[in-house]
Amino acid sequence: MGMKMIVAVHVVAMAAAVCARDLNQTMAATAQGWRPRGRPLATALIVFGDSIVDPGNNNNLPVTRMKANHAPYGKDFAGHVATGRFSNALLPPDLIAQRLNLKQLLPPWLNVDHTPEDLLTGVSFASGATGFDPLTPQIVNVFTMDQELEFFDTYRQKLVGLVGEQETRRIIDGAFFFVCTATDDVANTYFMTPYRAFDYDIPAYVDLLLVGAEAFLRNTSARGAKKMGFTGMPPIGCVPSQRTIGGGVQRRCDARRNYAALMYNKALQELIGRLNADPGFHTHVVYFNIYDIIYELAVHGERWGFTEMTRGCCGSGLIEVTQLCNTQYMGVCDDVDKHVFFDSYHPTQRAYEIIVDHIFKYYVPLMHL
C-alpha cells in the first residue's frame, strides 16, 4: 500500500473515531436524566430496515449519498447534532425503546462505541435506502438486509462475551424485533430506475419483494427471534417527493405507487399468516399497518394540528432529501411541528410520535409482551 493510501486510510479512521466519540457524548448527554415509566416490556429492542429506522449506520459508508449526518438533520436533537437520523430529531426506534421502558435512544450498530448496557438492551442494524430487492442497496451502495443479519450475528457474539450463552439466549428470547423496509424498493428501484420496471409489472415486482421478505423472516427466526413487529409500506405516492415526481402539476398522491404499496401489504399479511401457522416457524410475527395512519397524516393532517402535509420542511420541500437537504445550500422551516414531513421523504418527529402511538395502541398488544 502506498504512502498516500496509508495516510488516507488513517485520516478516515481518525475521522470515524472522532465522529464516534462526539456521537457517544451527544447520546449520553441526551439520555441523561431519562427515567423509564415502568418495568421493561422487553429485554431488548433489535431493529432491521431502512432510513426510517437507521440512527446512523450509514454515516461512514464512503461511497453512498444516503446519509443524514449533516444539518439540518438533527435540528431539534439535543445539541442540534446530526447523528445520522433521517429526521429533525428522534426516529421510531427511539420512541419504541422509550415506550418499552428500555432507554431513551436506540444506538446504531456502527459508528459508536457501545457501553455494555447499549448492547444488553439492543441496537439498530438498519441501513438507510436498503430493501428486499437485492438491487436496491447495490444501486445506492448501502448495506443489504443479509449484511444486517451478519451484523446481528456479530452482536450476538459480543453478548455472549459479556454475559455468557445462557443469558444471551434469555435476552434474544425476550427481545422485541422490529423490521421496517421495502419502501425504497418501490419508490426508488422500481419507479426511479429502468432496471426492474422493464421486466416486471407491479404484481411481479411485489412477488420478488415477498421472496426477500420471506427469506429474511425465516433467517431471523432461525437466529432466535421470538416476537417481531413487521411493518408494511406507507402510502408511497403521498410522500412529498413522490407527489412531485408522479403526482402531476397539482402534486396529488400518485395512484400507481400507492397501488404497489397496497398490493405488497396484502401479500405480506398473507405471508405472515402462513408463517405464523407453520409449526416449524418459531417466531410470532405481528403485521404493523402503517399505511392508514400515514395516509391520514399526509392527506388529512389538519385533523392532527398540521398545516403542511405535501411539502417537507427542508428547502422547497418538493424534492430535497439526504445530500440535497443541506443547510449549506438552503434554508429550513421554523415551524417543524406543523409539517408532517421533515425532508421530501421522511416524517418529522411529531409525525413519528403519532405513528408510534398508533402502533402501540393497535398492534403491540398483539405481541403479548
What does the secondary structure layout of this molecule look like, with pairings?
Layout: H1 3-31, E1 45-49, H2 92-99, H3 116-120, H4 135-140, H5 145-173, E2 176-180, H6 183-192, H7 194-197, H8 202-222, E3 227-231, H9 240-246, H10 255-276, E4 284-288, H11 291-300, E5 308-312, E6 339-341, H12 349-362
Parallel strand pairs: 1-2, 2-3, 3-4, 5-6
Signal peptide: 1-20
Keywords: Signal
InterPro entries: GDSL (IPR001087), GDSL_lipolytic_enzyme (IPR050592), SGNH_hydro_sf (IPR036514), SGNH_plant_lipase-like (IPR035669)
State the strand order across the main sheet. 1-2-3-4
CATH topology: Rossmann fold
Number of domains as seen in the coordinates: 1
Structural class: alpha/beta
- Please state the second-level CATH architecture: 3-Layer(aba) Sandwich
* Helix percentage: 40-55%
Give the averaged pLDDT, no decimals: 93
Largest sheet: 4 strands, parallel
Which shape, going by the Cα principal axes?
globular
Radius of gyration, in Å, reads 20 Å
Extended strand count = 6
Segments where pLDDT lies below 50 for 5+ residues? Answer: 1-18
Can you characterise this structure?
With 369 residues, the protein is α/β, with parallel strands linked by helices. It has a single domain (36-299, 349-363), classed as Rossmann fold (3-Layer(aba) Sandwich). It is 45% helix and 8% strand. It has 12 helices and 6 strands. The chain has helices at residues 3-31, 92-99, 116-120, 135-140, 145-173, 183-192, 194-197, 202-222, 240-246, 255-276, 291-300, 349-362, and strands at 45-49, 176-180, 227-231, 284-288, 308-312, 339-341. The strands form 2 sheets. A 4-stranded parallel beta sheet has the order 1-2-3-4, with helices on both faces. α2 crosses α12 (349-362) and α8 (202-222) packs parallel to α10 (255-276). Residues 1-18 have low confidence and may be disordered. It comes from Lolium multiflorum. This is GDSL esterase/lipase EXL3.
